[in-house]
């Protein structure tokens, strides 16, 4: 097993992630693993020592944090590591009264070993030694992780269940999450022969009765005239798309105004579906959605309780720095509704941002720092301010919103966007701007006959008009390759062959398909046999309107909700000190950076010989 992966397995598999707006990760301190503090003290948290070795290990194990030790980012990462270890120490100390039995620890260790193929005792011991642990050490880690998990469970269980008012408020602002599936009332004919299916489709388009043809020909549901669902009150019961094979369902549910599909092949069978009525998705009534709503709201209330618990631990924490190399500044970066936002909270969200991690891999740390300070950190500060402001805003507006700060902020934004509507002009504008999304590329079924002689290829193309392509090409000395279903530009064909099928205007009719021109590919010459050729086409606005509408409505709700939330936050007159904090940090980091001694211009430079070697300077005597 890869050592880095093993470290993650052994040191992190039991880490507890508490989703409380931000993810707090709690893993036992190394000192707790060994039952005593080892190493050089860096700081104390309410009297508990955190060592330099612990801080350095935490930094090494995170690829983002270990990417640089210098400059503003180096200072940020040090601040983050210290804040994280402080939180972990506070939580670890807060669960010392939780009892965890030896059998519980044994069960969890057994589970970890089984999950990671380490059931062999030697393999397990070797794996632990590879990360500097013994079995006893690891069991102490497990014991503490289980204790944290149990305390969190206690906190969650103590949270009162959501009230009907809280459930109704959440439902009213999130009805799009509780939609019924689209359904259709319809009938189908299923046969095993494509030609027969095509003949039946012609009859249906000519006005034949669908139910009668289904009863006489379909291999499925013939006893009810092909009805997709049982007959109720004289009509087929509506069914969802999952009731049909994927290709068939896609074709049927595209008929929003009803009608007949083409013949659709799926699983060796051939389907024709008549859509009698299309039933669009709609919001479930509150009574029907209530159980799911309760699950979501109760989870939010529980997460909020955990968030409050963690913050209560921080409130009176006493931190003393023992090693000044690890002393950090964690100033107030913003204030809103009487609450202070610490700079480490901003760094935490920056470190956890995936785009930031990608940025570090692409540009030097100094350049990344400039981009982060100018773009990402200001955005993060505003998001945190909104979160801190949200409970006050919700209370002022008499909204029954519950959950973490960020969840309440989302609720306030949803309230501000509750009346958002989209017009046909909005939908048409989106369609015009994003027309490429609705293009279906050309497709075909392709076979290739390759010849080592151009004349043979030309002769074959001229002679083949009917019969079996594979047999004819083989008799003519060609090597045949079945390319199968091909979509223009999908990479299954070389550029030359792709162009010969989808761009050329000189395809020649032959048998049930067409032949391409002779195409030179390397030192050979190919002729392509093309069937089921479908040209590229763009779906009309009418065809995709229903698909576009929820997207455009979502964008409008997001915009209107954010505007409303921004306006509400502004009334609380928050202060944003980020620029001041960053300026002070830059000055402090610059002062701590060792200065490179300036070169004295009066120093004699050594003479250089013609071979490039230096000659020691001479002195006057």
UniProtKB/TrEMBL annotation:
Native organism: Deinococcus daejeonensis
Protein name: peptidylprolyl isomerase
Pfam families per record: Rotamase_2, SurA_N_3
One MF annotation (Gene Ontology) recorded for this entry: isomerase activity
Domain PpiC: 181-277
EC class: isomerase
Polar residues composition bias: residue spans: 611-621
Keyword Signal: yes
Start and end residues of each stretch annotated as Disordered: 585-621
Recorded catalytic activity of this chain's protein: [protein]-peptidylproline (omega=180) = [protein]-peptidylproline (omega=0)
SUPFAM superfamilies recorded: FKBP-like (SSF54534), Triger factor/SurA peptide-binding domain-like (SSF109998)
Residue ranges with Basic and acidic residues bias: 597-610
Catalytic activity, EC: 5.2.1.8
PANTHER family, per database record: FOLDASE PROTEIN PRSA (PTHR47245:SF1), PEPTIDYLPROLYL ISOMERASE (PTHR47245)
Keywords: Isomerase, Rotamase, Signal
Domain of life: Bacteria
InterPro entries on file: PPIase_dom_sf, PPIase_PpiC, PrsA_foldase, Trigger_fact/SurA_dom_sf
